[in-house]
Amino acid sequence: MGHIVGKDVLYRKLGKKIDGLIVRAPWNETLHEILKELYTTEEADLIIKMPCRLSGFDRIQKISRIEKLKLQKLIEGMCARGLVLEIKGV
Fold first, then answer.
1. 8 A C-beta contact, residue 41 and residue 7
2. Which pLDDT tens digit goes with each residue over 8-30?
3. Residue 87 domain flag
4. Total structural domains in the chain?
5. Which of 18, 43, 45, 51 has a C-alpha 20 to 30 A away from that of 31?
6. How far apart are the first and last CA of the chain?
């Protein structure tokens, strides 16, 4: 596999989180490439920190410790690409 750099470790953590969901996604080079294409490193880090259940913005902000405006932009960007969903009233 070669030398693993920080970004690769981040995407591996994201892959592990996704693999732990209902539908399995075992780690391999293809999954790694897909995750790198879909998520920036900031987005991957946020998804790793997010709870696996419905959570409001304030809870996500508290857990992630990302400044509110930056977090809002990250979430809006992922929503626009269908990577996370916004459900009103949560």
1. yes
2. 899 999 999 988 888 888 899 99
3. no
4. 1
5. 51
6. 41
Domain assignment of residue 86, yes or no: no
Amino acid at 23: V
CA-to-CA separations, 2 to 5, 8, 29, 57, in angstroms, rounded: 10, 11, 12, 38
Q: What one-character DSSP code corresponds to residue 21?
A: S
- Full residue range of the structural domain in which residue 31 is found: 6-80
Q: What angle do CA 36, 42, 44 make, to 5 degrees?
A: 50
Distance, CA of 38 to chain centre:
10
DSSP secondary structure of 68-80: HHHHHHHHHHHHH
Question: Any residues with CB less than 8 A from the CB of 79 and at least 6 apart, and which?
Answer: 85, 86
Q: Which amino acid is at 71?
A: L
